Amino acid sequence: MDKETRQNKVLSGAYKKSNNFFESDVMLHHHLGKILSDEAKNAIEQRLSWMGNVAANGMDFHSLKADKMPPTLVKRDQWGEDIDHIEFHPSYWLLVEYAVRSGMFAVKWHPEFREKLSDQLNKMSFGISYLYAMAETGIYCPLCMTDGVAVLIDRYCKDEDKERLLPSIYASAIEDLKTGAMYLTEKAGGSDVGANLVTATHYRDDLYLLNGEKWFCSNANGEIAFVLARTNPEITGTKGLSIFLVEKTLPDGSANPMNIVRLKDKLGVKSMASAEIILTNTVGKLVGEEFKGFKVMTEMINLSRVYNSVAAQAASRRALSEAYQFLRGRETFGKNAMQHPLVRVKLEELGALNVANFYLTWRAVEALDNEHDENEQQLLRLLTPMVKRWSADRGVYITRESMELMGGIGYIEDQVMPKLMRDIMVLPIWEGAGNIMILDMLRAAAKSNGLTVMLKEIIVNAADSDYAETLGLEVQKLKATAEEIMRFDQDVMQASSKPFFDRLTTVYQMSLMVKNLDGTSENWMLPALDYFKKNVLTKNEELVNTNVLSQEEIDLLLAWKV
């Protein structure tokens, strides 16, 4: 091959791609090794390796197919009967089968795991599903809904319903699987759930007939849904809402009446079905106490927000790894792209943001497994909206910048970057947009001990480290600012809360990195901490950058092995 032919290529021979995301993601591999017991690691090690292999090799093809061939609604059969059937491309069902085979729900809900490893169920499940989400974030929403309905069934439903429904969630075969859904949003309400109008009229026993329209029903084909409705329309706001278990099929085998008006034509996550659904005498079973529906639904929403965070972290991690692999194999202006200082400066920023988001996200997952602890409960009240907002916001940025690092080829639909970009754009919106999360953090700071617990944890995490003084001073400033903000009226309080929580999130992230610092993690942790200290805490505005990371240092920071 002559020189001219060799040069007419996008990538050089140095390009390598991951063949197993679990083996390549040094940071994930290391962290799971630290936070899981030996018994838990033994239980899921093969599952992690299998999922990492499938996500790196088989899933992209089917993910792109399911994205390009989204579900369609078949309103009627050949006899003119309404059937409201949603049809999917075969790749959709293969992707669902991958989720079932991975055991992401089995390790959380099968009685064997719940009995032996009750304090590690979320860590094990999210360890597997994190790898899944690196390849497919659309179907990750139905998987999230399925786990969410399992939580509500387990905590609030009668024993007969638990025994009947939970095995279909941790099913080992796709034909036995029942997926979940949450029918929450209505036209008049949106994020203001208290404005919901759907009514529930008592039918018999604990059954009610639901009537009205749900505006945004994710996983519209789910067999099990939890639906908010009003048993007394005169009781307004969230305090008038009750929650109902609605199954797609009634006990006699007939369809529960639900009129699917249309499927949503979304910007991203096109592989799964979101719909507008009119409920007309739809049978629902009252779950929990009447008028306590919003409180029950909040538990599902909070879990969904952690899923949202894991999806944001996984998708942006995938985008960054794709850009990194590309740049290592790309020759520009006579040298490898990684040798250009501006490329390394950008990778330093994205790598630091990725590391910080990783430990914030996994702190939330760990707190879910420790909810029996009062301090962890209080922390979660603040941490859940914090991580949901921050991971999504920064995840979108990391993904967009990673696409730009690949140039025009990153914008072409031949590969995963455009799909990642479109899919991740929903995550700042789903389960409460950014402003809603800020208001939720503000309520948590005012009505719980979450802020006190978090500030104390920052001090403990930083103790006996090189960052003890720096983060200690930050905590003092945050305490003083919080006290000042709380003295103002609601308008000033809300307007001031965004910069406060931005700062709190960054300081907390830094403390988590310090806490998890060891002889291995220092490879990516120290440059990330240095970045935040220079560019966030001290707001270094020097125009001359004399400390550009070398290619070897960037390799360590990104912690991605190919």
Automatic annotation (TrEMBL):
Cofactor section: FAD
The keyword Oxidoreductase is assigned to this record: yes
Domain (Adaptive response protein AidB N-terminal): residue spans on this chain: 18-154
GO molecular function: acyl-CoA dehydrogenase activity
InterPro entries named among the record's database cross-references: Acyl-CoA_dehydrogenase-like (IPR052904), Acyl-CoA_DH_CS (IPR006089), Acyl-CoA_Oxase/DH_mid-dom (IPR006091), AcylCo_DH-like_C (IPR036250), AcylCo_DH/oxidase_C (IPR009075), AcylCoA_DH/oxidase_NM_dom_sf (IPR009100), AidB_N (IPR041504)
PROSITE patterns: ACYL_COA_DH_2
Protein name: Crotonobetainyl-CoA reductase
